[in-house]
Structures are given as C-alpha cells and as structure tokens.
Amino acid sequence: MNRWESDPILTVEHLTMRFGGLVAIDDLSFSVGRGDITAIIGPNGAGKTTVFNCVTGFYKPTEGRIAIALDKADAETLERLTAGGQRMSEDRNILLLDRMPDFEIARDARVARTFQNIRLFGGMTVLENLFVAQHNKLMLASNYTIGGIFGLSRYRKGQDDALGRARYWLEQIDLIDRADDPAADLPYGAQRRLEIARAMCTGPKLLCLDEPAAGLNPRESAELNTLLRFIRDEHGISVLLIEHDMGVVMEISDHIVVLDYGEKISDGAADFVRHDPKVIAAYLGVEDEEVETPAEQGASG
Amino acid sequence: MANTTGESALDTGAVGAEIEDERRAEAVRGEPPFTEHPASGDRLAAALKDAVIAGLIALALAGPMVGLRTETAIGGLSLSQHWLPVAVIVAVVFLGRLLLNLFVWRTGGRTKPITATSFRLLPSGEQLEKWRWPGLVAAIAFTIVMPFLPFADRYWMDQAIVVLTYCMLGWGLNVVVGLAGLLDLGYVAFYAVGAYSFALLATNFDLGFWVCLPMAGILAAGWGLILGFPVLRLRGDYLAIVTLAFGEIIRVVIINWYDFTNGPDGISGIPRPTLFGIPFERGDDGFAAVFGLEYSSIQRIIFLYYIILVLALVTNFVTLRLRRLPVGRAWEALREDEIACRSLGINTTNTKLTAFATGAMFGGFAGSFFATRQGFISPESFTAIESFIILAVVVLGGLGSQLGIVIAVIFLNTAFEVLRGLDEYRMLIVGLMMVLIMVWRPRGLVSTRRPSVTLSGRAKAVRGELVGEGSG
Ligand SMILES: Nc1ncnc2c1ncn2[C@@H]1O[C@H](COP(=O)(O)OP(=O)(O)OP(=O)(O)O)[C@@H](O)[C@H]1O
Ligand SMILES: [Mg+2]
C-alpha cells in the first residue's frame, strides 16, 4: 500500500471552495503521505493555490474537512473530533485545520508555507528573516518580553539556539555569506531559497511550497531538487508542492495530484500520472497527441 | 515565468542582473563619480577655504536666528542682542568643518572634493555607524551638563523641556507608526489620558508624582488596547480615520464630562514633583533651604528638565531594546508583510495590540509629565494638531529612526520659535519647509534601518528604500 493511503500526514476530504458564484475547488479529496514529496499540478487557474490557502487557513473552506496527523494517522480520533466539534485531540496529534486560524495552523499544526509571489521581509536582513520565523520559540525564551528586557540567561540561550538554527539553514541554502544583507537585495533564486529556509526555521512537520522553481534557471532548479530531497530525507519532513515545471515534478515527487478546473483528474505515483490520458488531455489537448491506452495501469502506478 | 531560453543564456542573464544590482547599490551607497581633487599640497588651503565658507553660512544663519531676539517690552517689542552664542556657533562650525575636512572626509590619502560631501548634508549609514557610540555619549553628556552652561537661561531650559517632551512622544509614536507600520492619527489621546489620569489621581487622592506616573502609563496603555481592538481589522486610510476620530472622541468626552474632568475649565492645582518629598519652593522646607542654596525659580525648571530627560532616555532605551527582542522584530515584520507573519505562526492581533499599548504607555508618561509641569491642564492642550505635529516629527525624522526624530524635533521647534513673530504665516512657512524636506528626502531625514541582529557582529544599515512603510 502507498504511504499516502497507509499513513497520511494530511487528509483533505470533500473540500469545496466557492468565491461567490465561482467554484474554485469542487469536492476535492486527497492525502499526503508522511515523509513523501507530494506534488499538486494542473493548468493555470486550476485551483492549486486555493488548495494551499485552505490548508494553511488563509481561506476558510466552504465545505470539507482538512486534518493533519502529526505523529500517526488515527481515523477513529479524527471522527470523534469531527463529531465533537473540537479543533485538536488532547495529545495534539490530530488537528482539524479547517477549524483553525492561519497563525495557529503554522504554530500548533506545524504547517509552514511559501508563497507564489515571494513574501520576504525585504527591509530586514536575511538573518532577521530567519529570526522572525522563530518568533514563538524566542517569545517563550524571553518570557514574553519581560525576561528579554532584562537580558536573563534563558533569553540569551534562546537567542543562541535561534542563531544556531538560522546558521544551519543558511549553510544549507548557501547564503551564509549574505546573512547580514537586506533580503530584498538578494537575486531572485536566492530569495526563493531563503523563503524555504525561513519556512524550515518554524520547525514544521509539513512544508507547503507554492511554485518554488518558478523563475529559476536549470542549475538553480537542480539545486532546489537536492534541497527538497535533503529536507525530506534528513529531516523527515513531508513536502507538498505546487509546480509547473514537469522536470522537477517527475523527478522528485513520490506522489502527484492533478487538478483541472477545481477537480481532481488524476492521483498516483509519477509514472501513473505521466501516462494518464486525462492528464495528457488537460495539458496538451487530446487531438494533438496520440495517447497510449493506459488501461493496463493500476491506480497505484 | 517559463524557462524558454537555454541554460547559458539564463546564467549570464542572472549574473548580469546581479552585477546590475551591485552597481545600483554602489551608486546609492557611494559618492557620485566626481573628479578627484588635485594635489595634496592644496589640501590645507582647500580645507581652510571650505571652513571659512561654512563659517560664513553659520554666521548668516545664526546672526538673525540666535543673535537677535525679540522681547516684549513696555510699549511693544524690543530687540535684544546676543552675540556670544553666535560667536560660539560660528567658531564650532568653522573648526568642526576644518577638522572634518582634514581628518575625516578623505579616502586613501586624497581629499574628496568638498561638493561631493557637502551636497549630502546628512551622514550616510556607514558614517552613522562609526559615530554612533561617540555621538551618543557626547549627546548624553551634553544634555546632562547643559543646565549649568552659561547660555542656559530660563527660556533655553523651557525650550529644552519642550524638545525632550516631543522627542519622548515621537519615540513613543514611533513604535506604532515607524516599527509596526500602523498609521495612528490620534496619538494625542494617550497624551491626554496620561495627563488627566495624573491630574485626577493627584488632586483627588493626594498622590505624588512618582506614584501617579506609572499608573498614568498603565491607564494610557489600557486605552491603547481599547483603541486597538476595534481597529485591528482596519488598514491604511481606514485605520488613520478611526484613530483620528478616537483622538477627538477622548477630547470631546473630556470637555463634556463636567463632573469628572471639570470640562473646558480644566484641572488646576496639580502638584509639582518633589525630590524625595522636598518641594521646590521658597521657605524653610524648600529645596534651596534644605541644601543651603539661594532660592531661585530656575531650580524647579532644572529639576523638571532632569525628569523629562530621564523619562525620554528611558523611552529611548526601552524602545531600542524592544526592537532587538522578538516582539519588536515581529512589529517590524508586520510592517514589512503581515501575511508572511501569519504564515510563520505570529499572532498578528496580539502583536498589533502590544504595539498600540507600548506606544500609548509612553504617551501616557509624557502626558503626566506635561500635567505636572504646567500645574494646569485643559482639553485645549490636546487637539488634533498635536497629533499631527507628533506624527510629522516621526515622518520627517524617518520612520523608525530614533535619531531622525531628535533632529526633526529640534528643527521644528527652532522653526516655530524663530518664526514666532509671523503669527498665522508661521504654520504656512513650516509646512512649506516640511514639504521641501520631504521632496529632498522622501524617506525622512534618517531613512536607513539598523538590523536588530547580525551574524558578523558588524551592523550594516539597510537602505531606506528597501524598508516597508506598512499598510495597516
Ligand atoms: N480570493 C479570491 N477571490 C475570488 N476568486 C479567487 C480568489 N482566489 C482565487 N480565485 C479564483 O480561483 C481560481 C483558482 O485560482 P488559483 O490561484 O488557486 O489557481 P492556481 O491553480 O494556483 O493557478 P496558477 O497556476 O496560475 O497559480 C481562479 O479562477 C481564481 O480567479
Ligand atoms: Mg497559484
């Protein structure tokens, strides 16, 4: 069985998002396997970013359930929480994201994200960007500012930890030399990497990346692949990404979900999706392409 | 953005863009490419010549501004002359300019042409960085000994107190507008709350200045929260309008709630601050008698000066400290991008509220000082124009810059004093000058931003045009 079926970290069920009369997402269900790199692909306007905004709480879904299982998927608890109207289980393992505001999803459900149009704190330095990402930890260490004002040792230790984590990620994204430069001064590719590092500094379990390879040159794209694999393999973090660049998607994804006009048209491993006629039709138009019949291919790829 | 071109083209494109970036940064940072100054033998002569010119400019400015002063005399105004301070100013400008020419404004043994530096009157980020600590120590030392310098008469001390009060207000508002990026047009409300809290507590319960001061601050912070809640969802223009209204509401309530606030008649008989219970009065228990000095009314003024100096310095150091703590960094991040803040798990509601409350608290402290200094307060002191002046100080100084605020306050206060004789034209001229300054430096006088944390330990200032202005 696939990981996204046996132990999903994120399950999206019957998600619908309407903007007035426009149905941006229509009854969408999919799961993200723990420790997988999962890609959401689809033509422009398919509703990919809207899915992200629903998962991370920036939009309140019209209908549907979005749940995260931080340690272990547990269908029974999930049903109990849903029926009981609660937000999260007592042990904070299962959380219902559709019931939580955006900043709590980042803080308690440990979902970090990046944006399609990069959103860095441009007037702050690279290092400061990574410190802002560790706000909640630092806030605790500074005893909600009181201890910080008097420079208590607990705060100094928290500050050192934050610096260590920032330094670690700066080394991973190869920006350690520019730590004290304003983020807005970085070249485009570096800004994309910094946004990923900033998301990682929040200590997430699920990392959502909205078109991380957009605007990158092939070399930077390859580096990004390496970085994403590193994040998955060395840190055990599940990655959900939106991507247009098929090269990137097919190479690194363990699982691909294809959207078109707000509906799921295909779902499976890379090989399965690559040969799915519905996907080919959506991307290229059926007439133009002689499609091999995928009847013999199973749903699991 | 699709990658349609080949790899090599993209590569050079990216590198080209980077070089272009660097060049642009260089152009902003460095001096314009003027031709080098000739031989080093001419250096002394050139420096002297430049210093003489600077001295003459100082004379032309200081002569009418400082040397001549109108005073009310019997049957009209009379002109009094003060040439000693003028001489001091001219000498300082001349010598300072000469020394700067000889020892500071040169690179690699060659002087830079004077035009290259003099057209940029304010120091750059790097220069600020270099002079930061010596400048700070010198400024604090000067403010401490100032009351005992020969020129510090009653008028001078009063002006110094006004300047410090507005610095404090500017620094307080800076937390809200400069750091958190929330446009607050009703800041005077907190000044009023502080003043009235102090006045009412002191006159009704017989409490002293030092007991009432923290209470006034806490009450003002409470009102900051109360204002904060309804305006949290508003941004930009809407936020500005609601805060403006809030400032007016407080004033109107003070006017109309006669039983409580004594309405337009104001509150009088507010106790003066004492030094550990020793009042500044004529008589046997007074400060002069206790310390065996001759009684003079200036002693009380000097004492007030030191109180506001301490309050202002505390405001400054606390806000600077907060800026380097997570809460302050969150304020600045909020100004840069609120959505990104939320995606990082920052509770933006609380963050905005703490900014409002902190700013309001310092406004409240300043208000209590105002009340105790005047001994009498009425709603007339807390009109919207006060809010605008405080905001103008913050904007003119450069959003977020503590030093800029000091320069802006001194500038505005000097302008108002010098133009005092022009009555209604005064506002017009000051307004025009502010417009010109904003055209000259759209980001305020000191627009660079100091990072709150560094890896290398050497802070490089962030250029003003990169720093966000906030939209909330
Ligand atoms: N806040 C909103 N209000 C109204 N309509 C919206 C809103 N957000 C998205 N939409 C609409 O929902 C549809 C899906 O948009 P979405 O941004 O999710 O597409 P996408 O798959 O991310 O496209 P792209 O590849 O261009 O990023 C679009 O028709 C868009 O106009
Ligand atoms: Mg999108």
N-to-C SSE string of chain B, H for helix and E for strand: HHEEHEEHHHHHHHEHHHHHEHHH
Described by strand count, sense and barrel closure, the largest sheet of chain B is:
2 strands, antiparallel
Strand content of chain B: under 5%
Task: Kindly estimate the percentage of residues of chain A that lie in beta strands according to DSSP.
Answer: 15-25%
> Considering DSSP H and I runs of 4 or more, what fraction of the residues of chain B is helical?
55-70%
- Looking at the overall shape, the CATH architecture of the largest domain in chain B is Orthogonal Bundle
Number of helices of chain B: 18
What's the structural domain tally of chain A?
2
Residue-averaged pLDDT of chain B, rounded? 80
- Distance from first to last alpha carbon of chain B: 31 Å
Report the count of strand segments of chain B. 6
| Measured distance between first and last alpha carbons of chain A | 11 Å
CATH C-level name of the largest domain in chain B? Mainly Alpha
| Structural class determined from secondary elements of chain B | mainly alpha
Q: Are there runs of chain A of 5+ residues with pLDDT below 50, and where?
A: 287-301
Describe the main β-sheet of chain A briefly.
Answer: 6 strands, mixed
How large is the count of helical segments of chain A? 13
Order of strands, main sheet of chain B, comes to: 1-2
Proper CATH architecture of the largest domain in chain A: 3-Layer(aba) Sandwich
Shape of chain A: globular
